[in-house]
Amino acid sequence: MSDVDALVGAALAAARGSDVRQAERQLDRLVVDDPAAVDAALFGRLVRAVGRLWPRGWQPVDVARIVTRRAGVRPGRLLADVLAADRRDHGNVPAWWDEQLRGLDAAVWWDDDAGHLAGWAARERLDRVTALREVVEVLAVLESLPPVAVLRPPPGAAAPAPAGPSGSRMLDRVRALLAKAESTSYPAEAEALTGKAQELMARHSIDQALLAAGPADQPGGVRLGTDAPYAGAKALLVQEVAAANRCESVWSDDLGFTTVLGFPADLEAVEVLYTSLLVQATSAMLRGRAERRRASSRRTREYDESFLNAFALRIGERLRAATERTSREAARAEGGDRLLPVLATRSDAVRQRVETLFPGVTRGRLTIRDAEGWTSGTAAADRATLAPGGRPARPVRGSGRRSGPSR
């Protein structure tokens, strides 16, 4: 090990500890050493750190989310550069990998890796001490991440897994319809727009189930961010949307995401619906909070949390009702003897996938602390626009708990 590598290791070890003064002393040693050598060593270690995460189940968007969550937005931009450098070192990668990198704006803009950190600090207008501190912080996050479920084979693996957005024109139409439904101030227009989105997604999911049915058709997975504030309420909303779309969800509250397992068309529906309904729920909550403040000076956190939990559970009921109607209509059109066994087989495959990847999940109990928030959230869910789902909702699965209402 070179002297510079030893300095980097010492700075990283100190950053992980609780002695702030020792961490600053080790950082000072990096500052006064040869800048080019230090920068090259740090950047190389960053790239190697992300590369070790891919066989451990992490994907680019997952890493970017948790680095931003734990270190901040600016370190998140540094991480995007590291991901771009890692991508440059690979040959062919799955299409979804490059799609994630594009979504993160991960692109190589520098000429030489040895000069990257100096260039990044200049772009961010940082002094050298602050820049090095943030680099070490990102390294500390990357090297502390535990293994997670492998949802898709990483670059270099033998075969891609069927999961994630298809980029189909149908899905583009659904997103456009839901975006209009979120923005319109006319309830009738929102209902019409979302009703069309519901029809498209429901039919697409059933068509894909019939086309892809067979022994080679296996469930995949996606991870959706469920960060603070109100992470539990967000995880509950994912659960309700997922269960209504023949998917299962597992909440990793310590890592800030929920894993959704299912088949591609159903995963698409969950992603689009969750995003749209979270926007609607948040907007309705903020309106209710403002009205409450005019009438009372009480604290709002318990109101907000109760509102979002009630919204999620009521939306789940509406989604299940819509799904049951759509499934009955499809069974009449396609023939129940053909469609229903396919759907049952897929549901069994998803459950088996959950049991394989998450054998130790536990249940938690949902506690409602504000009756007014619960009532308002339920009413907002009744007004919300939605698209179709699947079978009855189950309690959230998570690393620490599942949820169920308790008043």
TrEMBL record:
Domain of life assignment: Bacteria
InterPro entries in alphabetical order: DUF2786, DUF7168
Location of the DUF2786 domain: 169-208
Name of one Pfam family that matches: DUF7168
Location of the DUF7168 domain: 235-345
Comp. bias (Low complexity): 388-407
Annotated segments matching region Disordered: 377-407
Record-given protein name: DUF2786 domain-containing protein
Organism ancestry: Bacteria, Bacillati, Actinomycetota, Actinomycetes, Micromonosporales
